[in-house]
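Summary for the steering committee. One of the milestones for this cycle was to obtain a three-dimensional model of the protein with tryptophan bound, which we needed before selecting residues for the alanine scan. The sequence and ligand used are listed below.
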Amino acid sequence: MIMAETQFTPRVFSGIQPSGGLTLGNYLGAMKRFVQMQDAGSHETIFCMVDLHAITATLPDPATLRRNTRELCAGFLAIGIDPEKSILINQSQVPEHAQLAWIFNCIARMGWMGRMTQWKDKAGKNAEAASLGLFAYPALMAADILVYHATHVPVGEDQKQHIELTRDIAAKFNHDYGVDFFPIAEPVIEGAATRVMNLQDGTKKMSKSDPSDKTRINLTDTADEIAKKIRKAKTDPDPLPDALAGLDARPEARNLVNIYAALADIAPQAVLDSHAGALFGHFKMALADLAVEKLAPISGEMTRLMADPAEIDRILGRGAERARAITAPILDRTYDIVGMLKS
Ligand code: TRP
């Protein structure tokens, strides 16, 4: 069956786990693009804190999970997600996500789920001890997307396989029930700094879970912390090259150039055009200034928002209401297609 994607309202959906500690990697890898998509106005935009996903690997302390969910919401707001222009929600507050996920648990095959690399990585050698929720994680993710009939999903490279699974689930549902109901959503993966690397080891991804705080920039870091971490970032003794090929086999150097480009909204080559021949000591000062200029206001705004959790809860309550105007009719039609009785 050929699906004409144009029959669906252009709609962007993406989600982030409230597992604590937003980094520059989250911001440049995904969140900055969310703001651009929101402001472009060509799509409806929906952004989600996926708290149901955040309990799949381990059970976080309940107070910590609540705090992390509010902090993630503060992060979305601080970087420029406007809760009027976009729909900003917390997953568990829109019950249709979990309801559709059950249907998808019955569409997806064990074999498909078992091939997910994230499952294999997280379950490790002891899959017997992993939760059923961790195994079903990608079906819930498919439900997050498809309960809005979303057509575009901006994600990092590591989530591409889950989007492919989402497409398989949509296609199998449509095929098995002989309908043309769920869209085949497109992943949107692009941008030079899609992968922001560890500041001390350019071959590893920047991660909030690395034991050393020097390896990352947190969105809550102060101006001084940001500048210091960039000044202390690992580099090599060679000057900046004049062409990108000169960054091959120099992962730390390449990472800093990519970070500069993403923060300044220019191409990595444009960074080299203006800094070729400079030593990293000098370049890092320019990068620290730029990073402080772009990031310090974000951390200031997050601190301000976190001081007023009731305001965050109000925004999420309103977001859930707006979301359910979309999700309730889609779930209702899904139940009809499947043959569930109506009360
Ligand atoms: N699995 C995604 C991640 O870890 C988070 C996520 C959950 C998501 N549901 C989603 C991303 C739906 C995009 C769309 O990054």
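Key point for the committee: The radius of gyration is 21 Å.
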